[in-house]
Amino acid sequence: TLSAMNLGIAPVISLPVSATVATSLQTMRDHNISAIPLVDDTGDIKLVTSASDLWEIFTDSAPRESIHEELSTYINNPHAKAAKPLTCTAETLFLDALATMLNNKVHRLFVVKPGTQQLSSVVTLVDMLSALVAYDEN
User: Which residue from 6, 19, 61, 91 has the least number of CB within 10 angstroms?
Assistant: First the structure.
């Protein structure tokens, strides 16, 4: 499982669905991350957006002041790729998580509490590959 390999246990940076584009970009920059999950008031993960998603919005000739609008404004934008994130639990089998990433061409899975959409962590493709290397060395 992911937890047995010490994956998907670190806290994850998230923002409320009401966050602005500027806040999202600043948070990604401050934490050196390329995507951020958006959660509702109960902590349920609703969407994930990435720097490249936001870039596409603003290369579509959006006015500069739109950077201060809520991300929710752009969720239905036909160019926005913000979508329901792929999730797993800490008890997901390593190979199942890796297959999900590869089959869906994503770089991360968000770890939720079993039976809920309560965000608890994130596991990235780099995390998975690093774990494989570490496992092979042992």
Answer: 61
- Using only C-alpha atoms, what is the Rg of the chain? 16
| Span 82-131, pLDDT tens digits | 567 899 999 999 999 999 999 988 889 999 999 998 999 999 999 998 88
- Where are the alpha helices (H) located in 32-92, listed in sequence order? 51-59
Roughly how many angstroms between the first and final C-alpha of the chain, as a whole number? 17
Q: pLDDT at residue 49 above 70?
A: yes
Question: How many CB atoms are located within 10 Å of the residue 7 CB?
Answer: 24
Separation between Cα atoms, residue 124 and residue 42, nearest integer Å:
24
| Full-model pTM | 0.81
Sign of the C-alpha dihedral, residues 88, 92, 96, 98? positive
- CB within 8 A of 15, min separation 6: which ones? 23, 24, 27, 36, 37, 38, 39, 71
